[in-house]
Amino acid sequence: MLSTHPQRSTADRRAQAQANADQAARDQARRDRRTRVVLGAAAALAVLTVALVVWFVLGRGGPQVEGISELPEGVDAPSVSDAHGGISFGASGEAGSTSGEDAVRVDVYVDFLCPACAQLEDVNGADLESLRSEGSATVVLHAISFLDAKSDGGSYSTRAAAAFAYVADEAPAQAYDFQAALFDSQPTEGSAALSDEQIEGIAVRVGVPADVAEGIDGERYRDFVGALTQVAFGDPDLLDDQGRFTTPTILVDGTVFEGDWSRPGELRAAVEAAAAD
Asked: Could you say which of 65, 124, 178, 198 has the lowest number of CB atoms within 10 Å?
C-alpha cells in the first residue's frame, strides 16, 4: 500500500539531523555542567574569587565608583539598557520591553563564567521565563565581568557580556535565549575560553541572523561592561548582609533576595508573593 505521507526532501532531512545534533550537544553541555556543580566546590570557589576581586577592583587606583548606581555619562550603552545598565525583558520577550507597571521587577546580576550563575539559570530559568511570559514579572539582566582572569586567555567574561549587550541591541527578540545558551555552553573556570567565532555560533543557533552575529567581536560594548561592573561593585543597594557584592545577586522589586535560590520554586514564590502585595 502506498504511503499517504509526503516524503521529506534530502535537505529537510539534513536540516532536521543538524537540529537534532545541536540539541543533543546543548543537552550534553547542560548535563556536564550540572555534574561539575554537584562534584566541585564551585560555590566556595566563587565566594573566594569574589572576595579577591573586590579587593583588586576597589583597591586599584582607578576611578572612584563607591556609591555610584548609574552608568557614567559618555559610555556607549545599548539602546535597550536603562540608566543602571540593566536590559529588561517583559511579556513580549524582547530586550528593552517590560511587562507593565504592575509587574514585579526582578533584577539579576550575573557573570557568564560564574558557575553559581549557571546553576541559577538551571534551577530558576524556566520559572523566570514563565513569570515573564505571563506578564507577572519584568526580568532585568545585568551581565557584568569580573572573572576574566579565570578563563585561559581571551577575557571571556567581558567578551560574553559584551556579546549579550550587542545581541540585545541588534537582535532583541533572540537576546533572552542567547543569554541562556551562553550558560548552557559555559566553559569551566581555568579552561580555554570560547572564541568570538564560537560565541557567534551560539548566537546563530538561537536564531540571531548570521549577518548580525558576525558583528560579535567583544569590542563594541567592552567599556559598557566595564562600567556596569564598577557600578555593581559600588552600589550599596546590591551588597549582602556582610557588605559584599557577589554573583548571582537578585533583587525582587528593589530588595535583595535573601532566600535560597538553589531550592527549586523558592525564588518563584518570592516573586509571586511580591505580585500579590
From this structure: 198
- Number of helices (H), then strands (E), in the chain: 9, 5
pLDDT at 21: 58
Contacts of 85 (CB under 8 A, 6+ apart): 71, 77, 142, 224, 227, 228, 231
Q: Which residues have CB under 8 Å from 131's CB, separation 6+?
A: 104, 106, 137, 139, 268, 271, 272
Maximum pairwise Cα distance, the chain? 81
Contact 233, 58 (CB under 8 A): yes
Q: Tell me: cis bond preceding 248? Omega within 30 of 0 counts.
A: yes
Q: Which residues pair with 143 in a beta bridge?
A: 110
C-alpha cell at 103: 509587574
Three-state SS string over 162-187 comes to: HHHHHHHHHCCCCHHHHHHHHHHCCC
Q: Are 189 and 180 in contact (CB under 8 A)?
A: no
Q: Judge contact between 99 and 91, C-beta under 8 A.
A: yes
The pTM for the full model equals 0.76
By C-alpha distance, which of 135, 145, 104, 126 is closest to 250? Answer: 104
Rounded to whole angstroms, the Cα distance separating 46 from 54 reads: 12
> Please, where are the H alpha helices in 40-155?
42-59, 115-133
Which amino acid would we find at residue 275? A
Strand ranges in 86-167 using DSSP code E only, listed in sequence order: 87-89, 104-110, 137-143
